[in-house]
């Protein structure tokens, strides 16, 4: 595994979180997996909306949490596979879910509640974002071993 690059950022608003997501989507490439971790209501779906915008998902496709259907697929410059693991129990048989079909696809896969995934399902390269509540806004912690996603850290400093 490549060396992990970590950085933190404070997002003061939902609009700023969308802006960050858009930049991630613009940088994303075929086969990328973006893992989102955080409590209920921290902004995982807001970040995904921005990623969708950066990937060129048409505006007439509302980006919503796929909590009840497991996965939403959106067209864009690459397909966006938006997966939500919120409703999965700890004793789920992961081999029956078919996550590998999305994780190792030609699209960009965003997984909400990724902390529920066993480490054995993680691809060798990924961008993981932890989202935390803060006094005003959200704190985001980025962890990646994908070189071009390191640019986000530089983008956020400016």
UniProtKB/TrEMBL annotation:
Source organism (scientific name): Desulfofervidus auxilii
A biological process from GO: tRNA threonylcarbamoyladenosine modification
Subcellular location: Cytoplasm
Domain of life: Bacteria
Matching Gene3D superfamilies: P-loop containing nucleotide triphosphate hydrolases
CC terms in the record's Gene Ontology section: cytoplasm
Pfam families membership: TsaE
Matching InterPro entries: P-loop_NTPase (IPR027417), T6A_TsaE (IPR003442)
Listed name of the protein: tRNA threonylcarbamoyladenosine biosynthesis protein TsaE
Family assignment from sequence similarity: Belongs to the TsaE family.
Main location: cytoplasm
Keywords: ATP-binding, Cytoplasm, Hydrolase, Magnesium, Metal-binding, Nucleotide-binding, tRNA processing
UniProt cross-references to SUPFAM superfamilies, sorted A to Z: P-loop containing nucleoside triphosphate hydrolases
Gene Ontology molecular function, alphabetical: ATP binding; hydrolase activity; metal ion binding
């Amino acid at each position: 595994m490549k060396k992990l690059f970590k950085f933190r950022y404070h997002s003061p608003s939902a609009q700023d979180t969308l802006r960050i997501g858009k930049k991630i989507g613009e940088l994303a490439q075929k086969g990328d997996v973006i893992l989102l971790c955080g409590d209920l209501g921290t902004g995982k779906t807001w970040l995904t909306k921005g990623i969708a915008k950066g990937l060129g998902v048409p505006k007439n496709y509302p980006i919503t949490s796929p909590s009840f259907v497991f996965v939403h697929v959106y067209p864009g410059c690459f397909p966006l596979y938006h997966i939500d693991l919120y409703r999965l129990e700890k004793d789920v048989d992961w081999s029956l879910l078919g996550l590998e079909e999305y994780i190792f696809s030609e699209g960009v896969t965003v997984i909400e509640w990724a902390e529920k995934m066993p480490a054995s399902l993680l691809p060798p390269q990924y961008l993981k974002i932890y989202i935390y509540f803060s006094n005003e806004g959200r704190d985001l912690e980025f962890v990646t071993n994908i070189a071009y996603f390191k640019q986000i850290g530089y983008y956020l400093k400016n």
